[in-house]
Design a protein that fits this description.
This protein has about 190 residues and is mainly β. It contains two helices and 13 strands. A hairpin with a 7-residue loop joins strand 1 and strand 2.
Length: about 190
């Protein structure tokens, strides 16, 4: 298992599990509490979510404010362009983003701490995506940032109009979201 931090968003952890492949297929541990705690993921996960999306689907950028969720995410089938944005007020990396390709081939996972917005774009014919969450989903605490926010300026690998839900189309840009609707950065 290999752990990677990035320079842009050092709080985000990219994990490359040890994948054992042979003529039958492959095997890897998708989660093991003790090992992940040793890597710095101290959270307890309370809910698992799964989604299937077709090619050119764009989901996000989502977050919960009063019931924030840390998330461990990955792909079990297909390939996505995964995006994480720091939306914590007062953070030295506020408005910065990173992307990583997640697929069933590379088995990468990303740990996204509380206070970050998350989204992804499906690159394959379809993709099965999973999220391990540190808090329960609360429908009335569902917030988001516009996926095409010019301030954030995400370089999505889009060649045609993406499939975006009505809800996701209505999110405002980060600069137009009220301060009381954004998480706050806490320096430890």
């Amino acid at each position: 298992m290999k752990l990677m931090h990035n320079e842009v968003l050092p709080d985000v952890i990219i994990i490359e599990p040890s994948v054992f492949k042979d003529s039958r297929g492959y095997f890897f541990e998708g989660f093991q509490a003790k090992r992940y705690q040793e890597m710095g993921i101290q959270e307890t996960f309370v809910q698992d979510n799964y989604s299937r999306s077709v090619k050119n689907t764009l989901r996000g950028l989502h977050y919960q404010l009063h019931h924030p969720q840390g998330k461990l995410v990955g792909v079990t089938a297909g390939k996505v362009f995964d995006v994480i944005v720091d939306i914590r007020q007062g953070s030295p990396t506020f408005g910065k983003w990173i992307s990583i390709e997640l697929s069933d081939e590379n088995a990468r996972q990303v740990y996204i701490p509380k206070g970050f917005a998350h989204g992804f774009f499906v690159l394959s014919e379809s993709a099965d995506f999973y999220y391990k969450c540190t808090d329960y989903y609360v429908p009335h605490d569902d917030y988001g940032v516009a996926w095409n926010d010019a301030f954030i300026n995400i370089e999505w690998p889009i060649n045609e109009i993406p499939v975006v839900s009505k809800k996701d189309q209505q999110y405002a840009s980060l600069q137009n979201i009220s301060h009381d609707q954004l998480p706050r950065y806490v320096c430890l």
